[in-house]
Request: fold
Amino acid sequence: MKVLVTGAAGFIGSHIVDALVEAGCEVVGVDCLLPAAHTGAPDYLNPAAEFHRADLRDGSSLRHILTGIDGVSHQAAMVGLGQSFDDVTDYVTHNDLATGVLLKALAAGQFRGRFVLGGSMVVYGEGAYECVEHGMVRPQPRTAAKLDAGEFDPPCPRCGRSLLARPIPETTPADPRNVYAATKLHQEHLASIFGRETGTPVTLLRYHNVYGPRMPQNSPYAGVASIFRSRLEQGRPPEVFEDGRQLRDFIHVTDIARANVLALTAGSGDPGPFNIATGEPKSINDMATALAQAGDAPVNSPVITGRYRLGDVRHVYAATERAERLLGFRARVGFLEGMRAFSQARLRHPTDPQTCGEPRDTPAK
Reply:
């Protein structure tokens, strides 16, 4: 099987390349390696894979790359909350325009292999909540006034009572609450329409908070785990926003790579979306504490700051039964095991070669 991996030099994409090579696939990787941000190809690129430096937004660069391709793992994306709304055009072009150009090229080449999209749990917005009186409800976005007052948990929109967080299933209506989330949902829409109109099998994977080796360090788009790791390396405690009790599902990048291999090789008649997560939620403070205590840093506990970011949501963690039943996927790397390994893992430093086409987990929630 010959598989194209987009964003192949990035954090998640490079691990998918490794997993596909190990599975015996012929792998072609593409990444733009944007000169404004990157000094060249990183040294961890798998030598058994073919690599092309190309921008997905330029359809002419894809023609020869797509020849003979049997499957596509589309990971290229600009991620995170960004610096301001001024980033909106960058997100739209890197995420949505690039996806559209890729799908158009695949359709023109009559591609009928499997197409797997690396999506994100950010499309849900807030997670799932239950009110003791009104059952399952959808809370409104949190306001600056409430957050300034330290009221971090969203109330029931009908009665104002406190809510109980629940695992979020894939059937939950999408409710993107920042630009990145909106573009990731649009990617899903484009891929789904492509599948329906061409007959191509499409699988949508929604990653939860991914961590592991090769995460970028000290980047405004880096994930919360690498931000905490960077502070610990500097001898400073991780700074946890809000009260630290916000819940997430932290999944190791090798499990994400394995989910992609399953989706490409085993496949499923159901296109998804599928939550790709562990099914074992942890708080941000749990993660920061485990990471601090696992490494050799002189500090072993985080600092709860009470600060917040208006684009963040409170609790999002996954219901994983659907991915296990239909994809045969279950995460293998346990939380403490993963954090111990991550405390010693290599991160990409600002001076390392880096790529523009890489999905990472969303920043500190």
